[in-house]
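During the reporting period the student researcher (J.K.) took over the structure-prediction task from the postdoctoral fellow and processed the backlog of single-chain submissions. One of the processed entries is reproduced below for the supervisory committee.
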Amino acid sequence: MASVGNGRSATPHTDAEPLSKPAASGDHPLVLAAVDDVPVLLEGVRVVLATRMAIADYTCAATVDELLASGIQPDVVLLDIRLNDGSLPHQNVTRIVKELGAPVLMFSQEAQPSVIQACLAAGAAGMLEKNADADTLAEAVATVATGEPWLSPEWAQVVSDPTWIMPHLAEREQEALRLFAAGLKAATIARRMGVQGDTVGTWLKRIRGKYIAAGRPAPTRTDLYIRAVEDGYCEGPQPL
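J.K. obtained the following structure tokens:
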């Protein structure tokens, strides 16, 4: 396990293009984690990001087990899809999202759309190719740190394949979607489900991200209601 940064904020590179989104919703230095079994690549990612955003800490791990054992609470996790420990990609995503509650940005050269689709269904916030340029990498990290999904145009097209119609939603996400589609406000949903309002907001953002990945975006409440009806999470208007 290697951890670098030690709370020091990197000075933005003067030649870098400004990001379209802030590094984090509170504009604070980010705590980042990266899981990959190629140490040189991980160090390169750290150097690139440190010239483009403020980083409070950057922790590297070769496996998800190692990441979870580190005790870090990251704002974003960069995850290589194919690790050499035999772990399944979508299960790695599920573990990180469930145990750390952090958005996962898949960072890989994975060429199997079904694998990407399964990871997105498991809760990953997005996918970025390892050959992406430095500014795109920084923008992707900054975007998912705010709770928004990220997909490159190429992968957005891949996962919008008509064979990928209905995204997989976790049980609690399904419940939140049903209540939201019924017209309840986030605060009311939170009380009913026994969670904080921010948690409901996170679920709804994640649900929208999954529908974007499925090629069926739902940016408004009405759109999300339509998706919920289409996928059987709630009933549509009844005839008079």
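The committee noted the following: The chain has a mean pLDDT of 80.
J.K. will present the remaining backlog at the next meeting.
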